[in-house]
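Cross-posted from the bioinformatics board.
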Amino acid sequence: MSNQPSPFPSERHDHDACINAALAQAKAICAEQGGRLTPQRRQVLELVWQEHKPVGAYELLERLREAGVKAAPPTVYRALDFLLSHGLIHRIESLNAYTGCATPGIPHHGQFLVCSQCQHVAELDDSAIHHQLDASARELGFVVERQTVEIRGLCPLCRETDNE
Amino acid sequence: MSNQPSPFPSERHDHDACINAALAQAKAICAEQGGRLTPQRRQVLELVWQEHKPVGAYELLERLREAGVKAAPPTVYRALDFLLSHGLIHRIESLNAYTGCATPGIPHHGQFLVCSQCQHVAELDDSAIHHQLDASARELGFVVERQTVEIRGLCPLCRETDNE
DNA sequence: AATGAAATGTTATAATGTACCAATTATTTC
DNA sequence: GAAATAATTGGTACATTATAACATTTCATT
């Protein structure tokens, strides 16, 4: 029921293509939704997409500064808020960090597989899981607003190369 | 597949009984596992159980101080770490807060329904959900260490009394 | 009592996030 | 195009959450 090809990109996939695709989609989505993908927001999104790992807000801040931007914490948090509200990134609650959304467009909350060794994150958006949780909650009279599902463990690669 | 009677306790259930039961179980579990439920740890656990709402570490700190204990942040965090490691409380990641474990004994990670209005938390420990997540992850070659499932929404009570 | 391990006390600081208000830039309206 | 309005950004200060590091005390066992 998973609607993506391979949530764990290989180590040497064409990551520039990832970034470019994400930026292109972001541009399209913002145009559609009436959001303004300003240069600063775009730059933060690009920084988030540098790796398939969640990035902390202050790490982004540092990278912005390294890039010559005079930024303060609110600069980053504002950009993150914008990107979150347009479904372009997700926040990983268990890490206080942010990661690019694999299937942007409609704001949603996916399921995340977080490797405890290499920190890579894979997003699932598995509708079976979503519905299962929704059903279990409804059964108890609970109206679901938002699901946070984060799974920690070993990704396929780390599982092979290391056995701790 | 839920193995508990009613995860949302009524407004005027016998909460002293809840607290006493939790403390008694904690005592038994610590005895069994060789953990020392010192007076301070016990007191923090009791404070966590004051309500069926997650409590922040600094709120606990304040309550400890109100109770005449000279405490600093590490005091609280150490107690919380102990209680977490023995499966007596859970941390709600999306709230940076802690809540009593409904089914202590064996360390585990349940599913949590968090009411966005009254802040009450219900713990599920639904094995169907657990296995579903485990299966989805395994299918991708991911070895699960820990599941974080937190559902925000309206609890049955708030759903009735308020329609926002 | 002597020893080592576990728990606690204490200070300082790290890491994450927000409130607030001023200045600027973009968008709309006339 | 000029004025009014809204959205974005700049920047300071501060709030909240969490931990590092080291001294002291208490506990468990000889």
